[in-house]
Amino acid sequence: MRRALDALCVLALSFAGASPAAASWPDLPLPDDSQGEWVSRHMIHNGVPMRAARFKSQLPPAQLVRYYEQLWPGQVTVTDLGSKRIVAHGTNKHFFTIEITGGATGSEGQIGIIEVLKEAPRTEPGADFLKPAGTQVVTDTVYLDEPGRTLAMNVRMSPFQADAFYRSRLPGRGWRSQDSKPCPMMALSCIANYSNGKEQMTLTFNRNGETTDMVVNQISR
After folding, report:
1. 133 neighbors 154 (Cβ within 8 angstroms)
2. Is residue 193 within 8 Å of 134, Cβ to Cβ?
3. I need a labelling partner for 117 at 20 to 30 A (CA). Which of 51, 123, 148, 182 fits?
4. pLDDT tens sequence across 4-13
5. Residue 40 and residue 25 in contact, taking contact as beta carbons nearer than 8 Å
6. Inter-residue contact 40 to 51 (CB < 8 Å)
7. Which residue in 110, 91, 83 sits closest to 99, CA to CA?
8. Residues with Cβ < 8 Å from 194, sequence gap 6 or more?
9. What sign for the dihedral angle of Cα 124, 138, 81, 5?
10. What is the DSSP pairing of strand 176-177 with strand 148-155?
11. How far apart are CA 77 and CA 164, in angstroms?
12. Whole-model pTM above 0.85?
């Protein structure tokens, strides 16, 4: 869902007539046969407030798309993305996306509801997170209902070098390594675990050509 969320954040910021601060969240109607659950009721994705949920339906994708076209007549955009169908709907306060997959026996949906902002976030994603020079932050998601954070970054280092960077600097910020051995010099991927009081953090490094894709997961226990 990451690519869809990034695109939707950009679209949400382009809407005219932005919402006031702390606008109430709308409900997202589901077909009667659906079973859904929240992924997060309160999260900040690349600086944009949003909610995320998922659901299952007995309707095949085409009928599920038709349900939303009838729910929001003339106000729906449908995009095919590989095996997925993306239904999008915007108001002056919120932007909805439903990412649909499935077949004749039923569908699964990923839901995103994004608050429309008056202006782009003033702080770049990941601006407050320690990172090597030249690092590209792809996504920065903060979960507020169950405190945690996930960052996806691209680092101009090997996994070994990136691991060494954090091993040398995180202890000065109160983080304690939970691993007895560092990442091997020739490793294509590795994982590093840290703790700081009740905070837990896992860094995952995966070689991608001349750079390394890095994912950071932080949770509070």
Report:
1. no
2. no
3. 148
4. 444 444 333 3
5. no
6. yes
7. 110
8. 166, 170, 175, 176, 177, 178, 200, 201, 202, 203
9. negative
10. unpaired
11. 46
12. no
